[in-house]
Amino acid sequence: MAPVKRYSVKQKIEDIATCLALDENQIKGFGYGNGRLGIALFYLYYGHLTADNTYAEKAEDLFSQAFDELRNEKFEGHFFEKDLAEFGMFIEFTQTANWFDFEAAEILESIDEVLLNHLEHAIEREDFDPFSGALVAGNYYSFRLESTDKIVPHLEKLVHGLYQKKNIDSDGNWFWKSKLTDPNGVVYTGISHGMGAILALLANLYEHNILPSLCAEMMLKGSHFLLTQAKEFEKHGYYFDDIVGQTNGISRLSLCYGDLGVSYGLLRVGQTLSNDVIYTKAIGILRNSILRSSLEQTGVRDAGLLYGASGNAMIYNMIFRLTGDNVFLSTAHYWQQRAIEYGQDTADSTAGFLPHLNRMYLATNVGFLQGIAGIGCAFIQTVCDDAPKMDKLIWLL
């Protein structure tokens, strides 16, 4: 697997920058996943790459628009808190990167309190999804740990909530549900909605000495639950269904779903607790995931972060940095090249890229999680070694 061709990447980055500047590609929303702050992130990365301060000014203008939208408009729906958390995470990320420098304590402390209310209600209804449930607040507070210890009691509340609301299977293993799509709850295995995200967050909290004994117990019980769900790779071509108990045999290879997110969570547990059994299992799953490359094997149909090739490149690169194993770096290069190849579409595409899902929405095409803003940020990280790593923005805690 040859490293990515840098000239090809840079050309696509320039195409994305040109496309995002068009009036027709301006979006609303105060989060970064599907809102204007995702484009702001691209401008900050692009300005870093080109040493052009005008792009930082563009990002600041988008941030001001997002802040005005947050303050002045009425929002409804269960993704308000997710976007609010993303707004706060954007501030923390850009200040840590020394891209933005303004007094944000009052803003962030207000977000802390709003999300505490959300956290308490999510725990009560036993929803631990990173989009709709308690991990909306949990992932945000994990960002805040880098700048304040005031939110430690909030994270302790989350840890206690996870412990109190755990489900126990017949073997004594523990699991937690998402109520994003089903009021009765389902058990997602991966990192965007389910168990992989919970394990990664618990590992992060353990490392920050937040109720470490409880975190360790839940990491072990949760890891054992996931490992009991594993299928025979030789028979099925994958290990984990997207949802526990589903019968349609779906397991995508992506940041959003499937073996990558599960094994990332297991890897974090194995390393954090120095548990050789869990670590070895995680590495075995990851090494077999490398064998999956075709559309039929992976379900990958575009270049996006959430479901596509750029997200796979990001997670394999993170796994390389955690393990030092060059096979994962080579695999990251492979998926980076695949992402470039997906940028050759012309009809109805945006800067050459065409998302497979939800393409009828402008935010899907130009935004961060599924669109060209996120693809562009991922590309810049491949050609600019000193660009800030955006792992935590995509649940890789």
UniProtKB/TrEMBL annotation:
Specify the domain of life of the species encoding this protein: Bacteria
Query: Which Pfam families does this one have?
Result: LANC_like
Q: What is this protein called?
A: Lanthionine synthetase LanC family protein
